[in-house]
């Protein structure tokens, strides 16, 4: 899914307008390609979408009617064309399953994933970057080994298993956090849905009891996702930092008597931050696709569960809609990290 | 996809043992909270809904004309109907509606609502409509056939004199629920019969009303203040979508839910010894079977089909792998139905199977494939059968797939063996006879594609017998006919019928009164109390 588009960078001779047009064209092509491939996969999957609509018991006449209603009698390329035309007018179609407009469904499930992923990636970054720096500075020593082993567990332990374990310990035994779900039933109707991000909604409405409840629900799954992104971020930080610490400017700084903390946290980290931004953005994008397993264990009504369910039922409109959302997320985060590049890297900035 | 291994289950079990219930939260005293995998709900319109979960929701929020006692299904009584009469020629039923009752909205229930509901379902012609249209109704004729004759009376005229029990049982199905005509019509847009509103809305008269449904998240039911029966003790009943059984178990042990509905053998065993919890079960109508495609050169030999019936270790599977989830049953009608055959003549007998294979000219066995849905229970069942088949030299290759995949292949008749489940659509024996023992047209483009068709089993004579049973007015004679039909089917059919499903749930010990009926729409929580 990593259809990253790299823009900016070496194209210094091009005027701004040309650059923008090129960017737009490549974004449009990416989406077109993404949609087409997803569409094809959905049609090649040996699952009959009509069955998921009418069920196994419907009579042949009902089956035939729905088959035509879904447009499945038309050639594949024509089906895709019809779909594209609708998308361009802002109509993403209805879900075969829920029979509601796809965008309504996605607007309902995406905030749950967004909230969880954002929380997770913030935790992962806050912990992962300092740990990575620490490991690089203490390379080969105990602290490095500890950070690497913690990262390795994050890499290799099944998230499903860790999630259940976390529930048993922190929810069932210690009672520190609330159980699966986003919010307790008793608070559910206290807050009026606005953004769909419950933490934000409850805070804006000043419902602090509800806020605490929501927080105690999200903290465990968010920590779990945070742990996983921390494993990745700390490992990458470590290798970027090792690379920077071996550079001549570090030796020069040391010769000049710059304090060691300044060399590490200001000079080296500043340079390591450039590639690190991409790593964090990719990690964030990965979480935003929705972690199916985490969402299943924690009964989290997010995008991952929605897409998996749609895919298993060959609900193509839903799958395509979800793919578009994920595509937008990836492209958006790529643009954002490019933007951050120009802020962090003076060489890129001057060319701009 | 991500089913737990034994290792995982063991870890969870050991940690739960350590995790003795400290301070557990309690659910509100007037609210019943259930955890259930409810991602199969696609509609709440009785004319469309057909899934187990939606059936149960509708069963507790809508009323049908006729009902039966869930403990004794032959005891049929009126719910919305007060009485009914069958005409001389057996083709017309005249119903009288109970007076003075009303819908949750406050609108009175009249014959107009009943007629509207039945004709609406026929005209909309969604998945479950065949339960009504099998009596000869079409969108064009239904307004003449089902007609109001007074404020509280209407007539129901069919194309043939069907067995009255068949008609009455069909009228107990969710599709025959009586909807609030006035309310539905107020929400009608462009002649859609209010469907776009009702698929997520509510217009019924049952003990509970549906307040909210958020797909893959929650269904909230509320006590219906206008219900004419005894008011339920619970003010609210909440279904939470919790897909993972291990998560349901943790929630139940913590007291954050009252009832857990999806439990595997591991969970059941662990919960049975917990004094705070009660495990309850009830026999459901669903049947586990293997379908042997007669297009396959080996499977089409009658001796092979019989040999396979001797190559399943029924008892051991029911006592270990599927403990508490199934009971051995080898006829196409489930227990609890009129005319059920309760003989289970087959058991594991490798010698006998080998003799039969030799008779078929296959003393060294053969190789076939079996399409297996990748759920843990069907997979473990298939693996056990694979083991016993191998003892007689039959190599069974399992092809895993998800529900949609295996079903698509099955309906295209491109399988060798299909292993799966079949649940009855309504409480009359015809529902299963229609699919297991009828195949009016075995051609590839047949209009109806029952299970017999899917396995290419061409049976004109048996089809005629099943058709005759539908028209037998005498219930005792009719039961005899079904017993005969099942005996013949058991001996000769390419269906290895193995088990009948048991529904298991666990609840906290302060909850009582949940009725587990023979079908999901009979499951009732109107009488549930908590102390």
Automatic annotation (TrEMBL), chain A:
The chain crosses the membrane at residues 21-42, 116-137, 149-172, 214-233, 272-300, 320-344. PROSITE patterns: ABC_TM1. GO terms for cellular component: plasma membrane. One of its GO terms (molecular function) is dipeptide transmembrane transporter activity. Residues 110-341 form the ABC transmembrane type-1 domain. It is found in: Cell membrane. Keywords: Cell membrane, Membrane, Transmembrane, Transmembrane helix, Transport. It is a multi-pass membrane protein. Its main location: membrane. The keyword Transmembrane helix applies. Belongs to the binding-protein-dependent transport system permease family. This is ABC transporter permease subunit. The lineage of its organism: Bacteria, Pseudomonadati, Pseudomonadota, Alphaproteobacteria, Rhodobacterales.
UniProtKB/TrEMBL annotation, chain B:
CDD domains: PBP2_NikA_DppA_OppA_like_7. Pfam families: SBP_bac_5. The keyword Signal applies. It comes from the Bacteria. Residues 1-25 form the signal peptide. Residues 77-442 form the Solute-binding protein family domain. GO terms for molecular function: peptide transmembrane transporter activity. Its main location: periplasm. InterPro entries: Peptide/Ni-bd (IPR030678), SBP_5 (IPR039424), SBP_5_dom (IPR000914). GO terms for biological process: peptide transport. It is found in: Periplasm. Keywords: Signal. One of its GO terms (cellular component) is outer membrane-bounded periplasmic space. Belongs to the bacterial solute-binding protein 5 family. This is ABC transporter substrate-binding protein.
């Amino acid at each position: 899914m990593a259809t990253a588009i790299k823009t900016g960078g070496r194209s210094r001779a091009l005027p701004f307008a040309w650059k923008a047009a090129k960017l737009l064209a490549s974004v449009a092509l990416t989406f077109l390609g993404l949609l087409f491939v997803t569409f094809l996969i959905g049609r090649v999957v040996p699952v009959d979408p009509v069955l998921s609509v009418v069920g196994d018991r419907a009579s042949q006449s009902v089956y035939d009617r729905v088959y035509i209603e879904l447009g499945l009698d038309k050639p594949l390329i024509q089906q895709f064309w019809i779909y594209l035309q609708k998308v361009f007018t802002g109509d993403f179609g209805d879900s075969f399953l829920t029979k509601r407009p796809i965008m309504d469904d996605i607007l309902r499930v995406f905030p749950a994933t967004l909230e969880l992923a954002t929380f997770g990636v913030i935790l992962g970054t806050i912990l992962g970057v300092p740990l990575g720096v620490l490991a690089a500075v203490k390379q080969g020593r105990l602290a490095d080994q500890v950070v690497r082993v913690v990262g390795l567990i994050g890499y290799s332990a099944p998230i499903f298993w860790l999630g259940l374990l976390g529930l048993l310990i922190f929810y069932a035994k210690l009672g520190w956090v609330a159980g699966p779900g986003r919010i307790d039933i008793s608070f559910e109707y206290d807050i009026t849905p606005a953004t769909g991000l419950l933490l934000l909604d409850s805070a804006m409405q000043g419902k602090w009891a509800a806020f605490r409840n929501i927080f105690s629900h999200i903290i465990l799954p968010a920590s779990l996702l945070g742990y996983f992104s921390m494993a990745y971020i700390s490992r990458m930080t470590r290798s970027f930092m090792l690379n920077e610490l071996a550079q001549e400017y570090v030796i020069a700084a040391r010769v000049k008597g710059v304090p060691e903390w300044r060399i590490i946290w200001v000079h080296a980290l500043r340079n390591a931050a450039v590639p690190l931004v991409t790593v964090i953005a990719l990690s964030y994008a990965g979480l935003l696709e929705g972690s199916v397993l985490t969402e299943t264990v924690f009964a989290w009504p997010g995008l991952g569960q929605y897409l998996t369910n749609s895919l298993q039922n060959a609900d193509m409109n839903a799958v395509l809609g979800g793919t578009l959302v994920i595509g937008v997320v990836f492209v958006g985060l790529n643009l954002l990290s490019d933007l951050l590049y120009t802020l962090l890297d003076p060489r890129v900035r001057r060319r701009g | 996809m991500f089913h737990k291994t034994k290792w995982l289950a063991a870890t969870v079990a050991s940690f739960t043992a350590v995790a003795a219930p400290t301070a557990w939260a309690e659910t509100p005293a007037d609210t019943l909270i259930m955890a259930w995998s409810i991602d199969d709900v696609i509609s709440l319109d009785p004319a469309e809904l057909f899934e187990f979960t939606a059936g149960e929701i509708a069963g507790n929020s809508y009323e049908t004309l006729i009902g039966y006692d869930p403990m004794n299904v032959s005891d049929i009584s009126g719910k919305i109907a007060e009485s009914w009469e069958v005409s001389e020629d057996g083709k017309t039923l005249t119903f009288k509606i109970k007076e003075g009752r009303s819908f949750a909205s406050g609108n009175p229930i009249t014959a107009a609502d009943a007629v509207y509901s039945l004709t609406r379902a026929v005209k909309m012609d969604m998945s479950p409509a065949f339960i009504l249209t099998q009596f000869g109704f079409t969108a064009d004729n239904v307004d003449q056939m089902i007609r109001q004759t007074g404020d509280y009376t209407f007539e129901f005229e069919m194309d043939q004199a069907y067995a009255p029990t068949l008609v009455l049982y069909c009228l107990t199905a969710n599709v025959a629920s009586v909807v609030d005509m006035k309310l539905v019509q107020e929400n009608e847009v462009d002649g859609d019969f209010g469907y776009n509103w009702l698929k997520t809305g509510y217009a019924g008269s049952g003990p509970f009303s549906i307040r909210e449904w958020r797909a893959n998240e929650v269904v909230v039911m509320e006590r219906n203040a206008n219900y004419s029966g005894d008011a339920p003790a619970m003010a609210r009943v909440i279904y939470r979508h919790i897909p993972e059984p291990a998560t349901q178990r943790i929630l139940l042990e913590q007291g954050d839910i009252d009832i857990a509905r999806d439990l595997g053998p591991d969970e059941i065993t662990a919960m049975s010894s917990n004094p705070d919890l009660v495990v309850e079960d009830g026999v459901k109508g669903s049947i586990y079977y293997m379908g042997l495609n007669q297009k396959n050169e080996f499977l089409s030999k009658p001796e092979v089909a019989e040999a396979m019936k001797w190559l399943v270790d029924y008892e051991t599977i029911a006592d270990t792998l599927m403990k508490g989830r199934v009971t051995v049953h080898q006829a196409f009608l489930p227990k609890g139905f009129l005319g059920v055959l309760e003989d289970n003549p087959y058991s594991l007998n490798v010698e006998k199977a080998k003799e039969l294979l030799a008779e078929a000219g296959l003393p060294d066995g053969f190789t076939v494939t079996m399409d297996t849905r990748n759920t843990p229970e069907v997979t473990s069942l298939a693996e056990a059968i694979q083991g016993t088949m191998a003892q007689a030299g039959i190599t069974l290759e399992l092809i895993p797939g998800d529900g949609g995949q295996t079903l698509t292949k099955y309906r295209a008749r491109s399988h060798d063996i299909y292993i799966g489940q079949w649940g009855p659509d309504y409480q009359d024996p015809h529902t299963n006879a229609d699919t297991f023992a009828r195949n009016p047209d075995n051609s590839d483009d047949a209009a109806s594609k029952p299970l017999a068709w899917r396995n290419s089993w061409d049976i004109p004579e048996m089809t005629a017998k099943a058709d005759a049973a539908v028209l037998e007015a005498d219930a005792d004679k009719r039961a005899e006919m079904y017993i005969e039909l099942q005996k013949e089917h058991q001996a000769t059919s390419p269906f290895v019928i193995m088990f009948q499903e048991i529904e298991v749930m666990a609840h906290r010990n302060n909850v009582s009164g949940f009725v587990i009926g023979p079908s999901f729409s009979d499951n009732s929580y109107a009488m549930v109390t908590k102390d």
